[in-house]
């Protein structure tokens, strides 16, 4: 038998696990949802159900989408020879919001770290190399963080790409990137991309 | 006195033995006396935490909160730098890392290094010349850091890359590209570290030359040669096999040692007498302070814990004269008031009671 009060507590506990929410804000959010059951909570629950059923990683770039290939990888117009390597899907979304970049992406899903047991295979690096020739990539743009792990990853990728004779650049230094692009405004992202230089 | 770098106010709350403490200062040297366990070193430790790092005791965060309450602690200070005043606040809630606020804005710990230059000498450093190289390396890196706050970032970066490399070595990883990516970063920050260490020694050397001081000249050098970025990269690659057998990185700037010679006697510091070794350390701290004053126009804050006790009357008088000539706010501790008689009205005197109570005179 399900008890409404326990269900609501369980919902609060689940919500509190979301990034940026603690128990207090989770209680506020749930209370708000319950008060707006029909106009907000039900559509939200249905939408979440649909996304949970269909969301998946794009098999090519690692972006999150509802289809096997994401919209960017499915679009021929985005195959302009530029490939931007980012750490996280949130970086990709931030670049897309700024609208400045017209090429394709490759999402690593993290950075190389022996201490955290994250190696090249966990990061889709072999898949990155496999994309270069078939997609006619001319330039790989590294948009990785200035941290030790970010730079280790950048140098590792650079070495894998070198034999392919492809131009390698990185976003302008001094711009905090790597899981942090999300916090930058469009102007800063645009400036960092325009000022990219040979890696 | 005005102008120089100095704390004009320090307030502690639930920090170590101090439940609530406050001192008002004017930039003169500060002489603190009181019985064993009164809380003198704790006070100096609080000041040392106003520079980046873990302070003069290298304490773990959880040791700083006053026991038995362990409520979390707070250090608030007003720092005078030239004509400007900055409010610095450090605090930590139980189980959380410390936060820094400068002029009421959140700031990273490393920002403190650009604001407050603080050098210290504590009794545990008395054995610096005879104990393991690690202590001397840390001393050397603090010298370098005092001249170049960015030295801290290079050291952290080098250590992080080395920990990663050591993990690969222990895991018997063989992917050469992964090693090269890490070794490249170790070589880059390692070369910076080595250059800044040498640069610091050079500046200390210049500050000792022809200085009016009663303290002995210490001739400093590095135990291993500077390979530069390229040389370091080559070394790491060449040593990979041996390192893998050992499960760690055997060579590099993290193994460097600082060599000190008691100048006028041409005697290694480790073979010098206890008093001579102490005098060498004081000499180096004073030279560091003079070099910084030449660079920045203001002498750094000095924390000299129990410095007076080990010196004979002549050297003690010389120390006070040199500190006053430097114009440094030097915080000194001792168990007896007469140790500071020679300082007289040139300093501010603080009395601490066995129960931690504080009184300021003059
Ligand atoms: N976290 C803590 N909470 C409460 N008391 C502490 C804490 N840490 C250290 N103490 C106490 O602080 C007291 C004062 O220590 P401190 O080292 O400052 O003494 P001191 O005045 O320098 O003495 P001495 O002359 O022996 O060097 C000690 O008795 C110690 O037990
Ligand atoms: Mg003490
Ligand atoms: Zn895709």
TrEMBL record, chain A:
Alphabetical list of SUPFAM superfamilies matching this protein: Recombination protein RecR (SSF111304)
Family annotation (PROSITE patterns): TOPRIM (PS50880)
Leader sequence segment: none
Keyword NADP: no
Taxonomic superkingdom: Bacteria
GO molecular function: DNA binding; zinc ion binding
Domain spans labelled Toprim: 81-176
Zinc finger regions, C4-type: 58-73
CDD domains given in the database record: TOPRIM_recR (cd01025)
Any Gene Ontology biological process: DNA recombination
Keywords: DNA damage, DNA recombination, DNA repair, Metal-binding, Zinc, Zinc-finger
Pfam families, alphabetized: RecR_C (PF21175), RecR_HhH (PF21176), RecR_ZnF (PF02132), Toprim_4 (PF13662)
InterPro entries, sorted: DNA_Rcmb_RecR, Rcmb_RecR, Rcmb_RecR_Znf, TOPRIM_dom, TOPRIM_RecR
Role description: May play a role in DNA repair. It seems to be involved in an RecBC-independent recombinational process of DNA repair. It may act with RecF and RecO.
Protein family per UniProt: Belongs to the RecR family.
Protein name per Swiss-Prot or TrEMBL: Recombination protein RecR
Organism annotation: Profundibacterium mesophilum KAUST100406-0324
Source taxonomy: Bacteria, Pseudomonadati, Pseudomonadota, Alphaproteobacteria, Rhodobacterales
UniProtKB/TrEMBL annotation, chain B:
A single GO cellular-component term on record: cytoplasm
Primary subcellular site in the record, as a coarse category: cytoplasm
UniProt cross-references to SUPFAM superfamilies, sorted A to Z: P-loop containing nucleoside triphosphate hydrolases
InterPro entries: AAA+_ATPase (IPR003593), DNA-binding_RecF (IPR001238), DNA-binding_RecF_CS (IPR018078), P-loop_NTPase (IPR027417), RecF/RecN/SMC_N (IPR003395), RecF_2 (IPR042174)
Residue ranges of domain AAA+ ATPase in the record: 26-356
Binding site for ATP: 34-41
GO biological process: DNA replication; DNA synthesis involved in DNA repair; double-strand break repair; SOS response
Subcellular locations according to the entry: Cytoplasm
Pfam families xrefs: SMC_N (PF02463)
Keywords on record: ATP-binding, Cytoplasm, DNA damage, DNA repair, DNA replication, DNA-binding, Nucleotide-binding, SOS response
Gene Ontology MF term list: ATP binding; single-stranded DNA binding
Family to which this protein belongs: Belongs to the RecF family.
Role summary: The RecF protein is involved in DNA metabolism; it is required for DNA replication and normal SOS inducibility. RecF binds preferentially to single-stranded, linear DNA. It also seems to bind ATP.
NCBIfam families referenced in this protein's UniProt entry, alphabetically: recf (TIGR00611)
Protein's recorded name: DNA replication and repair protein RecF
Organism: Profundibacterium mesophilum KAUST100406-0324
